[in-house]
């Protein structure tokens, strides 16, 4: 999860729990749901982005999908669904749910930029993009995570939507 992303975060209390969780992440058995506000109206109500992610040739902090990506290109898959499209003065935005199947660094941010709908207030991938009035932080929220605990029980942890998101999308 990126530092500026709000919401749930999973921490292991010991090495055994860490290994157990790591295997679930590697096996793609952990279910993650994010909410985001992105620039522009996404045309389709839902979609699937399957595009490998590599390093940006121009900035060591950034990753890239598509032409120009450098280094090892790692497979990445992201599902999205549009909840609402809205305008704020002259600018257009989409409020979406995102379910990354893989867990690459900056995956949601990179994939949304790849389809020309970067996450709002993203200082790295959308530094000068428009943003809804009242929002001054990365518009990406980790809503829930679902995994098995050491006893084999499925655990789902959820985080309510941040107040600033609620005000903007109401």
Major beta-sheet overview = 7 strands, mixed
CATH superfamily: Pseudouridine synthase
Anisotropy-based shape: globular
Q: Level of helix content? A: 10-25%
Please state the second-level CATH architecture: 2-Layer Sandwich
Indicate the proportion of strand residues.
35-45%
C-alpha termini separation: 26 Å
Order of helices and strands: EHEEEEEEEHEEH
pLDDT under 50 segments (min length 5)? Answer: none
Structural class: alpha+beta
Cα Rg: 16 Å
Oligomer: single chain
Our count of domains comes out at 1
Tally of strands = 10
CATH fold naming: Pseudouridine synthase
CATH class: Alpha Beta
Number of helices: 3
What is the mean pLDDT? 94
Summarize the structure in words:
- This protein is an alpha+beta fold.
- It has one domain (6-169): Pseudouridine synthase (2-Layer Sandwich), CATH 3.30.2350.10.
- Helices cover 16% and strands 37% of the residues.
- The strands form 2 sheets. Strands 1, 2, 3, 7, 8, 9 and 10 form a 7-stranded mixed sheet that branches. A 3-stranded antiparallel sheet has the order 5-4-6.
- β9 (140-148) and β10 (154-158) form a beta hairpin.
- The protein is globular and about 50 Å long.
- The model has no long low-confidence stretch (mean pLDDT 94).
What tags apply to this protein structure?
seven-stranded mixed β-sheet; 170 residues; three-stranded antiparallel β-sheet; alpha+beta; Pseudouridine synthase; 3 helices
């Amino acid at each position: 999860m990126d530092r500026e992303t709000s919401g749930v975060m999973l921490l292991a209390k010991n090495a055994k729990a860490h290994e157990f969780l790591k295997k679930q992440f590697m096996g793609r058995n952990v279910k993650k749901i994010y909410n985001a506000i992105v620039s522009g109206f996404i045309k389709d109500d839902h979609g699937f982005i399957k595009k490998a992610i590599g390093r940006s040739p121009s900035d060591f902090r950034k990753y890239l999908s598509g032409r120009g990506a450098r280094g090892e290109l790692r497979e990445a898959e992201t599902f999205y669904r549009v909840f609402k499209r809205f305008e704020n003065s002259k600018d257009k935005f989409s409020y979406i749910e995102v379910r990354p199947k893989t867990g690459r660094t900056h995956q949601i941010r990179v994939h949304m930029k790849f389809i020309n709908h970067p996450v709002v207030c993203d200082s790295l991938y959308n530094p000068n993009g428009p943003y809804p009035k009242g929002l001054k932080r990365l518009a990406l929220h980790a809503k829930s995570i679902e995994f098995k605990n050491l006893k084999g029980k499925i655990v789902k942890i959820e985080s309510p939507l941040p107040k600033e998101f609620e005000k903007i999308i109401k």
